[in-house]
Structures are given as C-alpha cells and as structure tokens.
From TrEMBL, chain B:
NCBIfam families: moaD (TIGR01682). It holds the Pfam family ThiS. Gene3D superfamilies: 3.10.20.30. The gene is moaD. The lineage of its organism: Bacteria, Pseudomonadati, Pseudomonadota, Alphaproteobacteria, Hyphomicrobiales. SUPFAM superfamilies: MoaD/ThiS (SSF54285). This is Molybdopterin converting factor subunit 1.
C-alpha cells in the first residue's frame, strides 16, 4: 500500500494559499544564510490552471535561481477519449496535497512550491495538474517537483474515469504499479 | 459513524455516504471491510478484493489494521489515479 510520507510533525504548518506568496521569498540566501519559510500554494479547483501566472508568481524574487514546472495534460487516447472525469474527496484532497508539499519543503531547500489539481470534466489538451517548485539551485527544484508529482498520483484522493467520443462512459482508470514504484523510490530507509 | 465511498466503490455500493452503527466485534478497518462485504450484493462487488481497497479515517490514510475507535468519518475507495 502506498503510504503518504510521514509528515505529521508538519501537519500543523500553515501554508499560504494566497496570491501574495511571492513576497515571502525576498531574503538573500545564496550564501547559506537562514532560508525563509517556503511559500506553499495548494489548490483543488474545477477551473483551468494558468501555469504561466503561477510560475511568474513563484519566480518573481531575486532569491530564486531555478524554477521547475510540471504540467500533466489529458490525452485523447488516439481520438477515443472525449473527456476525463476527475472525482475527488473534498477536504482530504487539499489536506493530502498540503502534507506532500510540506514534506517536499522539509526534504529539499526549496523557496516555494505550488501544487494545483483540477477536478470535474477535463477535455483532451487541457491540463489536469500543475506542480511548480523554486530553489536557489536547480537540483532541489527538480527533485522536489518530481517527488510532489509522484505522491500527487498515488496518495492524493483523486480518481479518473473516461468519457468516450461515442457518448458512453468508459471505465475507471486503473492504478499503475509503475506509479507506486515511482513513489516508493523516495522512501527513506 | 459516517462512511464515505468514492469512485467504483461508490458506484458498486450505490451510495456516496451513509451513517452506520458498528456491530460488536468490528474494531479495525479490516473488520469493517469484512462486515460491509456481507451487507449485500453491491457491497460484495465493491469489496470483493479488500486487499486493494484504501481507507482514510478523518482524512488520513490508514492501514487495514488501524482501530476504528474515535473515528468520525471513514472513507473507502480504490487506489488513487490522480495526477
């Protein structure tokens, strides 16, 4: 069973959902001084996600040397798929993504991150999920973003169902062992 | 206790949520799944392979060995497929 990383100590950490998050990362940190509390934006929404807006908000500070964004899109599966329906568990979805983001912030020296997941009907070509991380140097942002995505797939309570172009509702998408394996590689001994 | 169901677990049971009073002897998540499985055809279909079923108590993932004592909301769902 894929388990959420143990971040109970961080569960009470407040995370910033607001648009002002970029203002928190102004402190100069390239020399190894105390790192400011990373700004963390967690959102579960039916609306489209504008990756450019999120990225510029995160990266708009002199402390940031690296920005990594990942956007997951809905495929048309060779023309077969009309839409994906994303069901979620309201309340738990936001809480789990927040825990994953806080765990990422505790493992890597990131300056900020955003983890945004859509629900509802999503057409091919539209984005499903966005993860963005900033750091002073690239490695932390790359790894934290990868970690966040792996756990967004395996421990955030979302389920995909296919709606087909012939008007029928297809099946629920099955969980992939490769996704569990991807998440498990982050487990500490 | 409130039970919430998602995705194909919800569809097979035919309910999104319900209130239940636990019978005596149902103490862990595993006990709950075993008891629910015998409540009818839909429950049986939803829980035919309980080992793959994921459970959260009050919005936290738990193992099947977790005690139910104190739980307000128990959610039962298939492996997650977001992202």
């Amino acid at each position: 069973m894929a388990k959420t990383p143990d971040s109970s100590a961080l569960a009470a950490t407040m995370y910033d959902r607001g648009a002002a998050s970029g203002s928190e990362v102004k402190q100069e940190d390239a020399g190894g001084g105390p790192r400011p509390e990373p700004s963390i934006e967690v959102r579960v929404t039916a609306e489209r996600i504008d990756a450019g807006t999120v990225a510029s908000r995160l990266a708009g500070s002199g402390a940031v040397g690296a920005l990594v964004t990942f956007t997951g899109y809905c495929r048309d599966e060779g023309g077969r798929l009309k839409a994906l329906e994303l069901e979620h568990y309201p309340g738990m979805a936001e809480k789990q993504i927040g825990k994953i983001a806080n765990e990422a912030a505790s493992r890597w020296p990131i300056l900020g991150c955003a983890a945004i997941h859509r629900h509802g009907l999503i057409a091919p070509g539209e984005e499903i999920v966005l993860v963005a991380c900033t750091s002073a140097h690239r490695q932390a942002a790359f790894e934290a973003a990868s970690f966040l995505m792996d756990f967004m797939k395996t421990s955030a309570p979302f389920w995909k169902r296919e709606h087909l172009v012939d008007g029928t509702t297809g099946g629920w998408v099955e969980a992939r062992d490769t996704d569990d394996a991807a998440a498990n590689r982050w487990h500490r001994l | 206790m409130k039970l919430a169901y998602f995705a194909w677990v919800r569809e097979r049971i035919g309910l999104a949520e319900e209130e239940v009073a636990l019978p005596e002897g149902v103490e862990t998540v595993g006990d709950l799944l075993g008891w629910l499985k015998g409540r009818g055809e839909g429950y049986g279909a939803a829980l035919e392979a309980p080992e793959i079923i994921r459970v959260a108590i009050d919005h936290e993932h738990v193992d099947h060995s977790e005690p139910l004592a104190g739980a307000k909301e128990v959610a039962i769902f298939p492996p997650m497929t977001g992202g």
